[in-house]
Amino acid sequence: MLTTMAGRTSCRLMGMFTPKLRGTELVRLTRIRGLSTRILAMAIQGCFSDDGPGITEHFSSRGAAFGDYDNDGDMDVVVLNLNDPPSLLRNEGGNQQNWIKIKLVGTQCNRTAIGARVRVITGKHVQMDEVHSGSSVMSQSDLRLHFGLGKSETVDLIEVKWPTTQKLERFPQVKANQILTIREGSGIVDSVKPKAK
Q1: What is the DSSP string of 22-63?
Q2: Residue 35 forms beta bridges with which residues?
Q3: What is the pLDDT of residues 110-151, one digit of tens each?
Q4: 98-192: which CATH topology?
Q5: Terminus of the chain with fewer CB atoms < 10 Å: N or C?
Q6: The model's pTM
């Protein structure tokens, strides 16, 4: 679902992008949880340009996968095209706000941590996401969880609830703009800053 809350946009597109049967199109959204919205291209202004072949060419598209292809902190999209190579919609400019990306590694639960829930708290703003698979036809999105933080330079609290044990781990005062790896029972085991553009 769209998570654009008062400047916290980090081009979170999973619920906004739809590959169409005839041509990959940006769709017009009219209502999201009762809030009127603009045309999708307006909602993601500055994230993707409309002059690349991934947008202007007409393909018979079936699936889409979302993730940080180039590990620069913004979300990119790979579209699966029938009888054609996939299209990579590379986000060039969508990480102008702060963000945090979290990779979970299960030890008691499944290794990919499917079903684990993460809450990210910055001030009064709380976001939650869950590691899941199978988001689109013949496609697998990045299993790392991406959270847009707006202007917040520090996450006040990250909470991870593991699926098998239901144990809750908490990580206070985490710096923004990094990719964290959290291993069940071991805490934060790796931190990577994004590549410079």
Answers
A1: SSEEPPBP-EETTEE--BHHHHTTTT--SSSHHHHS---EEE
A2: 32
A3: 999 999 999 999 999 999 999 998 777 778 888 999 999 999
A4: Immunoglobulin-like (2.60.40)
A5: N
A6: 0.73
What whole-number distance in Å separates Cα of residue 102 and Cα of residue 131? 10
Q: How far is CA 8 from CA 81, 99, 125, 153, in A?
A: 31, 9, 10, 12
Give the E-state strand segments of the chain in sequence order. 18-19, 24-25, 31-32, 35-36, 61-67, 76-81, 87-89, 98-105, 117-122, 125-130, 145-150, 154-161, 168-175, 179-183, 187-192
The tokens of 22 are what?
Answer: 């005839």
Question: What pLDDT does 79 receive?
Answer: 84
Instruction: Indicate where the chain has its CATH 2.60.40 domain(s).
Output: 98-192
Which residue type does 140 have? Q
Q: How confident is the model over 55-74, as pLDDT tens digits?
A: 666 777 778 888 888 888 88
Q: Token pair 């949880």 is at which residue? A: 33
